[in-house]
Amino acid sequence: MGAYVVFTTLTPEGRKRLLADPGRIREVTRIAEHLGARVTAQYATLGPYDFVTIIEAQDNATVELIETEISSIGTTRMSVAPAIGMHRFTKLLQMEPYRTEPHRWQTSIWARALRRSGRYWVMTRHVNRYCKPLNVEGLENLEAHRGGAIVIANHSSHFDTPVVLAALPERIRSRIIIAAAADKFYASRKKRTWWYSLFHGTFPVARGGGMKQLEYPLSLLKRKWSLLIYPEGGRSKSGQVQRFKAGPTIMAMQAHVPVIPLYIEGLRDVMPQLVFIEFAHVARSLLVKLARDP
Asked: How many domains, in total, are found in the chain?
């Protein structure tokens, strides 16, 4: 017996039937058992597939026979040609755990001192070298601001963060923490995840993590720290500003802090979503605009 992963998409008629009678999904289990196989797990998913089912079966031919039986019912259409062995499936996915708990020491005095002393080598020197000129407009609108805030910016490059930090006044920059995708910056393959927390001032955010992951950033805001968040939820592939997520709005309302919006222009081709391009090839004029009403 081997474990196989089966991807299932419902036909339009199948969706209607399943909505009217959710118990119909048990047909998969019943037919598998009839053919000497066993369903060990089944998950409803988002995306192009409605279900992912893990089946223990004698061989691939048995799984394909299960597909034929279910398709003949008309309830589901199953993509199992061929089914994928569990060991190969996990290897293809390159499943790796990632850290979701923030390094809470990052706001301590010693961490702040190290971050400030290392900022030039980690970020500023790259901004000075490759962003010529760096034009910042609207700083006068932040002269009266004190305390915590949520800084939001459009996002099309991994180089956005160094530029935003370079543009902000020191009183904000010295007390700002940055939301970062946990699966990208805090995966186990990155042996020095603490490096991002210490020198970049980031904390992990799990995609689709829900309301619970707002607890840490809310606690920072209440302690008069600021947050840098990209409300689009990821880098834009087209360069156009995407629809904003609700998280920053919820936190601003709950913590009673202002939102400082920034618009970055000129970084589209520096470390974009699709292709990495050498900084030296795209040393172009940059413009960071700060809205009048923070």
From this structure: 2
Instruction: Quote the CA–CA distance of 6 and 42 in Å, as a whole number.
Output: 9
DSSP 192: T
| Last residue within a domain, chosen from 72, 93, 114 | 93
Query: Are residue 119 and residue 261 in the same domain, yes or no?
Result: yes
Nearest residue to 244 via CA among 253, 231, 234: 231
Beta pairing class for 150-153 and 51-57: unpaired
Range of the domain at 206: 104-290
Q: pTM above 0.85?
A: no
- Please write the tens of the pLDDT for every residue from 242-273: 778 888 888 899 999 999 999 988 877 665 54
Provide the 3-class DSSP secondary structure of residue 85.
Answer: strand
- Tell me, yes or no, whether 222 and 115 share the same domain: yes
Q: pLDDT tens digits, residue range 72-109?
A: 555 545 444 345 555 655 555 555 577 788 999 999 99
- Torsion (CA) 24, 29, 31, 34 in degrees, nearest 10: -140
Beta-ladder partners of 41: 54
